Amino acid sequence: MRKAKIEVNNRDIAKMLCKAMPIEAEDFRAKVEAYMLVIKKLKPAQRLAMKAAYIFSSKVPREEREDMFQELALALLRKDTNEEKLAYSIARMDWVDWWRKYKVRSQYNGGSLNAEVKDNDGNAVELGELLVGEVEFEAKIVGELDGQKLWQSLPAKIKPIIQRRLIGKGLCDRDRQVLSRWIRKEGYQLLLA
Question: 21 CB contacts (<8 Å, ≥6 apart)?
Fold first, then answer.
């Protein structure tokens, strides 16, 4: 079963950055702590860039992750955005472009989406299966962000009416009229949001 949300913290990013270093366990811990402090001092847009780059780079084969992280982080740092949805969209689109190129390159080199790769937990999975699962997950996350944006755009008088409908309660005549009137007069604005 898929997680509803990927939680990434500074320690995760610091560990990923330190993995390529030729250091031992005690030195590794110290280096992770040092990187965590550096990450903590970054501007919010920079931390968001690192987080989005970490999430999407973890969705590529292990041998490609460092390069992918660098590419995504650089693209996001250039955009310098504090908007989480925008950062994820940029990273997702770059990730999708990368997968398209990787797929063509793999097919040209005799590989395929049936190739076995390791997922985040180190389990062997087919590349195609991993890709489909990750695309479904990302679509869900983007849908949740869109839903939050839609909810925020609703007027305060309409939100309680919609909440009652969402939990299965019937509407009284007054609520039905208020909702109907709002939909006729202003509901189209939701399409523009």
Answer: 28, 31
